[in-house]
Amino acid sequence: MAKDFVKSITSMEDDFAQWYTDVVTKAELIDYSSVRGSMIIRPYGTAIWENIKEALDKRIKETGHENVYMPLFIPESLLQREKDHIEGFAPEVAWVTHGGDEKLAERLCVRPTSEVLFAEHYKNIIHSYRDLPKLYNQWANVVRWEKTTRPFLRTLEFLWQEGHTCHETEEDADRETIQMLQVYAEICEKYLALPVIKGRKTEKEKFAGAKYTYTIESLMHDGKALQSGTSHNLGDGFAKSFGIQFSDRDGNLQHVQQTSWGFTTRIIGAMIMVHGDDRGLVVPPMIAPTQVMIVPIAQHKEGVLDFAYDLQKKLSNSIRVGIDASDKKPGWKFNEYEMKGIPLRLEVGPKDIEKNQVVLVRRDTGEKQFVSMDGLEETITQLLTDIQDNLLKKATDHREENTHTAVNFDEFKQLTAKEKPGFIKAMWCEDQACEDKIKEETSATSRCMPFEQETIADTCVCCGKKANKLVYWAKAY
Amino acid sequence: MAKDFVKSITSMEDDFAQWYTDVVTKAELIDYSSVRGSMIIRPYGTAIWENIKEALDKRIKETGHENVYMPLFIPESLLQREKDHIEGFAPEVAWVTHGGDEKLAERLCVRPTSEVLFAEHYKNIIHSYRDLPKLYNQWANVVRWEKTTRPFLRTLEFLWQEGHTCHETEEDADRETIQMLQVYAEICEKYLALPVIKGRKTEKEKFAGAKYTYTIESLMHDGKALQSGTSHNLGDGFAKSFGIQFSDRDGNLQHVQQTSWGFTTRIIGAMIMVHGDDRGLVVPPMIAPTQVMIVPIAQHKEGVLDFAYDLQKKLSNSIRVGIDASDKKPGWKFNEYEMKGIPLRLEVGPKDIEKNQVVLVRRDTGEKQFVSMDGLEETITQLLTDIQDNLLKKATDHREENTHTAVNFDEFKQLTAKEKPGFIKAMWCEDQACEDKIKEETSATSRCMPFEQETIADTCVCCGKKANKLVYWAKAY
């Protein structure tokens, strides 16, 4: 048992789906359990999520929001209060029908999202414009009864934060919706090194019960898109269904304007599929639980381990440094930490100690360099910044290379038929019939109407009628 | 609307239960929802829990544990794998029977605790002694179908952390069980200012499926006890049921030795019932979301608000400082922040500014003092330490005053019949019949067999037979 075997994975080009499954399991992000469609998030996956969560929670608090915690269960009658919402979610909720041996008088659903719970609470606590805005957020698990599941990307249960806010005016609500989308984009770009397209969802693709939905969309290595975060302006729909009213500055009763926005463990799937390669995971330094892994060379020789531990201690002030002093072979260790996508490997052996140097190997480029022990902390800090920047640049370049334009349906169909379709920018007449037809014939969906609009043509890519809305289309996860 | 009304609460002596309900709602810790037995944890309650969680998570990680996340649902067949465990939990679980419109082939229970999920995972990932110990923890919500519920103390759903570990030997598992109980005791005493009695549960009161259970018990203001954290040595019971085996250092197959331990939002109930008073909540400085609340006096006068904001900014380096610059009357504000139990109130008005001083009012003692602006940060830091120490001392004194001894059943019954029974130390013959009889006749239960044993008598307080085990008894939440 416990042999030093080297893990190997399927190549991305051979079978991207199998590559993904290999990476999530062999990098020890997740394990499967006997619960269909649910995953066990292992220590490494959890540590990555905790780093993302910490960065996002900080921004959520800095922008004035407070965390709360709502119940897991929603009585069926409460879920039914907002008509569009229940229609959207009823097919995919899990129902609790028994407590112990007792059959419940009313079924409870396990929350798929918590708009109705927040709405009920807001009705209780909001009376005057002085009570506004209410800027709440919760970190929670939610359940959606999906038929087909994949780790992180689509699971029965997932972890997320869901923000829920109430405002006096439509303008305030719109400002909030935009602000939180910007926060998501910032977390993606700054921490996860994921470039995103910001835009608005079409009516067909918006959140059930929303006035409109903003989204950030990213492009995976295989040319498929992934919705990476959404922010909804709910208008006064829920407020009217739940009677959330306040007396305004003139003493008149008004309904509040609401927003909600969510960001999930799904983003880890995006990180894997954007940065990963045939050697496994690549984790951006900003969210890497271990930024540098020290691998001692010839560690049985006197002084090597002491030196390595001492180095770890010194670097730990400003860098997250691990050390593997196990009796496994260096080659096994190199492979293991490449599989886990640790940004930098630091090798140090007797000769290095003699020469007052260490060896640094970048995970993103494979580049190996001998660097002096003098100023090592600064050297590493700079390298981590370079790696972070390089990952964002590579991902942005990849997206640009795989973003195409189409001016008619033939071009569109040719692009979507490619093995790696990418984003397709094309004009749309805003008629849902065209959106439906495109999906039916190409399986591409409208990802968003980007904030940065361009005029590629005057006519709809599908029906040829007059069109002035640019849409990003893609096959998507 | 939005009048400056002063909140008032029921007196503790008149009706402790009503006092508790008043405090949790009027200090805005929780709100009720239409979900029976579940609570909404409002921003203030959530912020307190986040501070407790942060302190405990730090200690859990320092002691070598890693966080993971397990599924919310447990298939019925998996729950049934450990016989004692299912017997203990089956009557109080919520069952999911439908996903969308589809009836499930097998019912799923909403986790009441996750031993079986961890056991299944451990079987997959543990093969050799090199894989041990496995020291995992998760922060999660769990559900227990309770008939009677009270905010924090007993709710259908609650938040907690549950640690689950695997070890090579019984000694390792025992050391872990003790270590984590000590961590809980430390969090209670150092952060929550809650003195606890550490000990072992009787067979009757131990966790379903455990070899034995250690517990920390605290005493509430009304003389009832509250179990405040438990740590279980699971022995190899789950390991045998689930086949979690490893090849030991001699190459023989052995079952792992396991532990589990949990600490919940219930502890907020203990904090309320130990430190609270007739003016509301009292939050220990170490976990107070706001340690100092600045209330500007005559804030319409020139320079007062600027001075107050400036002060807040200066103090914020090392202290969690809030400011209420709303147009509500100072009297309303005093009352509000006393209700919320904020450790220190800082008043500052034009005269204070002139005299280079501020007014500080302690929440715990009501003591008011004029202190110089010079060295204010140090003065406040010292005062917060004093308040923290005083709360622990007061609570310890209260517990000592309400800890009694009984050497025979008459004495025991007299003590339990008192309005404020407190802890009763009495000897027990270790026969469950006596434990049952005591509960039946007095409604007191065995809280623990304390680690610090004493010999109060030679005979069992109930049956009069030879006894050498000291037990803490109490009526309990």
TrEMBL record, chains A, B:
Report the InterPro entries cross-referenced here.
Answer: aa-tRNA-synt_IIb (IPR002314), aa-tRNA-synth_II (IPR006195), aa-tRNA-synth_II/BPL/LPL (IPR045864), Anticodon-bd (IPR004154), Anticodon-bd_dom_sf (IPR036621), Pro-tRNA-ligase_IIa (IPR002316), Pro-tRNA-ligase_IIa_arc-type (IPR004499), Pro-tRNA_ligase_II_C (IPR016061)
Its annotated compartments are:
Cytoplasm
Q: What is its EC number?
A: 6.1.1.15
SMART domains the record matches = ProRS-C_1 (SM00946)
Q: Which processes are annotated in GO (biological process)? A: prolyl-tRNA aminoacylation
Q: Name one GO cellular component term.
A: aminoacyl-tRNA synthetase multienzyme complex
Primary site of residence: cytoplasm
User: What are the alphabetically sorted keywords of the record?
Assistant: Aminoacyl-tRNA synthetase, ATP-binding, Cytoplasm, Ligase, Nucleotide-binding, Protein biosynthesis
Give the matching SUPFAM superfamilies: C-terminal domain of ProRS, Class II aaRS ABD-related, Class II aaRS and biotin synthetases
Gene3D superfamilies from the xrefs? Answer: Anticodon-binding domain (3.40.50.800), Bira Bifunctional Protein, Domain 2 (3.30.930.10), C-terminal domain of ProRS (3.30.110.30)
- Annotated coiled-coil positions are none
Any single GO molecular-function term of the entry would be:
proline-tRNA ligase activity
Catalyses which reaction(s): tRNA(Pro) + L-proline + ATP = L-prolyl-tRNA(Pro) + AMP + diphosphate
Task: Report the residue ranges that make up the Aminoacyl-transfer RNA synthetases class-II family profile domain in this protein.
Answer: 36-284
What is the purpose of this protein?
A: Catalyzes the attachment of proline to tRNA(Pro) in a two-step reaction: proline is first activated by ATP to form Pro-AMP and then transferred to the acceptor end of tRNA(Pro).
The protein's assembly and partners: Homodimer.
Quoted from the entry, the domain comment is: Consists of three domains: the N-terminal catalytic domain, the anticodon-binding domain and the C-terminal extension.
> Member of which family?
Belongs to the class-II aminoacyl-tRNA synthetase family. ProS type 3 subfamily.
Name the record gives this protein: Proline--tRNA ligase
Species of origin: Niallia circulans (Bacillus circulans)
Please name the gene that encodes this protein. proS
